[in-house]
Design a protein that fits this description.
2 copies of one chain form a homodimer. Chain A is mainly α. In chain A, about 55% of the residues lie in helices and about 5% in strands. Chain A has 6 helices and 2 strands; from the N terminus they run ααααββαα. The first copy, chain A, has a two-stranded antiparallel ribbon. In chain A, β1 (about 100-105) and β2 form a beta hairpin. In chain A, α1 (about 30-50) packs across α5 (about 120-140), α2 crosses α4 and α2 packs across α5 (about 120-140). The termini of chain A are far apart. At the A-B interface, α1, α2, α3, α5 and α6 of A face α1, α2, α3, α5 and α6 of B. The structure holds a DNA duplex.
Chain lengths: ~160, ~160
DNA sequence: TATTGTTATACTCTATAACTATA
DNA sequence: TATAGTTATAGAGTATAACAATA
């Protein structure tokens, strides 16, 4: 393992159904059902990254920088839906661990281009494989037909093309 | 309005699709699709609670205490899937705003029972109506048939009966 | 011994505002 | 003026650990 063995910090747990509790229509809310499902998906991620000190946004940053070398921090922020300052902290985190480097871009002296180091590339590819496998195991709770339907409905819900 | 008019703190925004970016299979991950959908649902919640200083866990605490008077903090924590210390902070928050009260329970001198005040009940019922309406508007992006399918698949995914 | 609530501490995630250097 | 990055600050959410009172 390259990173610390213990993931610290908040790990949102799934929402257990407590017997005898009146949920007062809370479980009739679509947003609540989505939240529960998302937490179940998070657990798959957590299993995939056990033993590696990483979190979902950090994983996303790692993968996105890996697939888009030379990306600027602003663009990374746009992809993550986060403010520039957050993209900077993520970049710091990657750089401190030797996973990525900032390099000056030719066209614009204000911006940095982000690039994974060999170590970052190795971690990215290892984790991508693991996350994919765990996610597939999670998705296997549905038939492939159901899964296709679910993906279509989720896309429609968020207005994806 | 009874609460502060401005909700502060982090409001997770939705994940925009940035053109020209290689997502490297990230969007093939079910957990990622669920996350995007959940954020869209969160926006519905945010619209419903505009002008009221409340967050999803605080809203959940308000509703759950309202529907289960005499609930202990430990049970509230179990419902929310959070540690006791978190349930305590939520209870403090409710109490500071005059929305709930702690009262000693007869059976166990260690535990507090939680009860909404009239003000808490009023806020709870107003917000429940608004959240339900906004959630319904959000859900209307799907046909009622699709919605039924989605709910069934989400329940199956989290292993709900 | 175990549980309830509490306090203390820490870390992640996110945001806004003000600043600098550059465009 | 506008943008990229940075710094400072703040609040929300979550966790663990240790403690007192009670079971």
């Amino acid at each position: 393992m390259k990173q610390r063995t213990k993931a610290r910090g908040p790990r949102p747990s799934s929402i257990a159904r407590v017997p005898g509790i009146d949920y007062a229509g809370l479980d009739g809310i679509l947003g609540y059902a989505l939240r529960r499902a998302q937490l179940a998906g998070f657990e798959a991620f957590h299993g995939a990254t056990a033993g590696v000190d990483i979190t979902p946004p950090r994983y996303t940053a790692l993968v996105i920088v890996g697939a888009n070398p030379g990306l600027t921090q602003s663009t990374l922020g746009a992809v993550l839906g986060t403010a520039r300052s957050g993209a900077m902290l993520l970049t710091d985190w990657l750089e401190e661990r030797g996973l990525a480097r900032r390099r000056r871009l030719a066209g614009d002296a204000r911006a940095w281009g982000l690039y994974l180091t060999p170590r970052g590339k190795a971690l990215s590819s290892r984790l991508r494989r693991r996350v994919k496998a765990y996610d597939a195991a999670f998705a296997r709770r549905l038939s492939s037909r159901e899964l296709g339907t679910l993906r279509r409905l989720l896309d429609k819900l968020v207005g994806a093309p």
